[in-house]
Amino acid sequence: MDAKDILGLPKTPFSSSQEKKSRPPKEPQRKPDGVSREVYALTGGVGMPALMPTVEASHLKRRPAAEKEKVAWQWLPFTSSARTDNLQLYHWVRVVNGIQPTGDYQFAKYNKKVDVLKYTDEEYEKYLIDPAWSREETDQLFEFCERFDLRFIVIADRFPTARSVEDLKSRYYSVSRSLLIHRARSFDDVSGNPLVKDSYDATHETERKRALSALLSQTKQQERKDAETLAEAKRIMESRAASKHVDEAGMPSSSDNALVPVDGVSPLISTHPSVTHPNTAANTSIPNSLRTLRVYLRTYALDQMVQAASASAGLRVIKRVDQTLQDLGVNLKPKVPTKAVCIEHLELRNELLTLLNLQKQLQNKEAEVSGNRESSFTEAPSTPKRSNRDVDRAFIPDTVGFTGERAGKRDHKRKSTGRFIDAPPSPPQSKRPRKLKGSD
Amino acid sequence: MSSQQNKRLKDVEISFPIVYGTISFWLGKKASEYNSHKWTVYVRSANNEDLSVIVKRVVFQLHPSFQNPTRVVEQPPFELSESGWGEFEIAITLYFHSDVCEKRLDLFHQLKLYPEEEAGPQSTKKPVVMETYDEIVFPEPTETFFQRVQNHPAANVPRLPPGITLPPPGPMEIVPYEKKRGDTKDHPLSQWFSNFSEADELLKLAAARQQVQAHVAKLRRQLTMIEGMPQHSKAFPVPGQQFGHI
Description:
- The complex is a heterodimer.
- Chain A is mainly α.
- In chain A, about 55% of the residues lie in helices and about 5% in strands.
- A two-stranded antiparallel ribbon of chain A has the order 1-2.
- In chain A, helix 8 runs antiparallel to helix 11 and helix 17 packs parallel to helix 19 (about 340-380).
- The longest helix of chain A is centred in the last third of the chain and has 41 residues, at about 340-380.
- Chain A is flat.
- Helix content of chain B is about 20%, strand content about 25%.
- In chain B, the strands form two sheets. Chain B has a four-stranded antiparallel sheet, with no helix packed on it.
- The longest helix of chain B has 30 residues, at about 200-225.
- The interface between A and B is large, with 83 and 80 residues.
- Strand 3 (about 295) of chain A pairs antiparallel with strand 8 (about 130-140) of chain B, so a sheet runs across the interface.
């Protein structure tokens, strides 16, 4: 059965510590996937010994060779081809087996220079005249391009006349381009040059930057509005899907009502006002998947009904319902799933769905109102809509807390939130469960 | 049996509250590597009444490393004791009497031998108890079945819907006092049976519902306010909305 059998070792070696021994048998329960129990048992159940050596043999052999080379660090002079002044500096160099490094300074290659074209007076007169640019300005631009390595942001900053980055780029690239074309013997010679191939489009560039800055400078409120529009669209889609679902399911048969007699299972229920609601019974109607069964477990029925009730809700909503149930201290699966408990459990879930729906509606409405007000401000800033403002003040504090146990705090907040902007109308959706936890 | 007796009762369901699970004792000094625990798996009525009124036999499917892993129990109490060292899932299949239901019912229970860390070290005195409460539901039972279990203490039998009358449960099948009682009231392990309190659960649910309903009402008020139309108390038709309304 295991390695001990094969090796002929006694199965129960005497040991003083009985407690320690009783633990290991549990290990095989947590055997890794894909390993059969028997194979796992052969390993003794305590971790898997490596089947292959983890250190390669070649790796072990390499080390002695490395010891042969003699490494020394020396303080040596060097010059850099990147410098024009031949300045000699010193640095530490790694010298292997006494061979000193030769050649250029290794970082000299990073001293890249842009090859800025130079034009003659004749060329300028012939090809480069632009009514928007004077000769002096163009000279200045090319000088700066050389000096600042085409860093146009820097160039624009230093430029004596007010020119935008796009202006400068446009002039520089168009001049370079026409110079290249006219100096070449035929167009084909330079047609592959990036300066010729892709001409600079200043208007496109301006538009691109404008769009980018618009995106980056979007305010929180605009972002929220966008999100709300999307949420509204999703809500409409969902409600459409739900109404479709209801149509398909058809009318609940009258028999369902009788199937769920509450008949005083618990005094708790009868004191509850909502149970007397006529719709209660129809709500807990048996889903079709159960109708055909001759016998089933109550928990199975509950699962089915929970699924049916949340069929129209999105995955995120279902998750939030579960989260809220936990926050309320309710078992996700009832521990004592009697009929009464299951009915109550389903009711609670339905009420939570309602709650989440209302919250969403309120957010949508609120977005609408603030949108209205925004437009009314721009139209007639002297007469803000009174009613809207009052509404804002009334509901902002209420949506902040979920359970409403912090009445004192809220009153305080109400006084301080005079204006809409001061208090965000409601926290983002995802934060609410956490908030609830905090207030409990 | 006449066809009259096989008639099914619409809109009626009979349920049997059951508890299934395992109780395991650590053997302490007597424990060997392969027999560290003695455990019992069982299906019992939640109020410890006799389940054999519906259950004909119970099949416990043990881990294949056991000898004869498929164990059939034909007599109440429906339980099985074994000893071992490993935890595994036990499949429990209930077969019912022919008048109850032809279909079988599968339950699954994870055998637990080792206590949770927070429960302290293992002890031979205190067993590890894992029990699950559930209810076996028979929708639309036959009239025969209904009559037979109508007054049985293990069953939850509803009042018949108006319009349906059944002859009183006459001297149909008087079960002779058997050699062995099927209930688990005096079961040797009964002191370890868990308490399943429906009231606790309902209390918790009621408290939660009250909280949620209060919040729903508040949201409704805010919605009507924001709509600026006080007479317009009805919100959008949202799924589930009609049920939570107070």
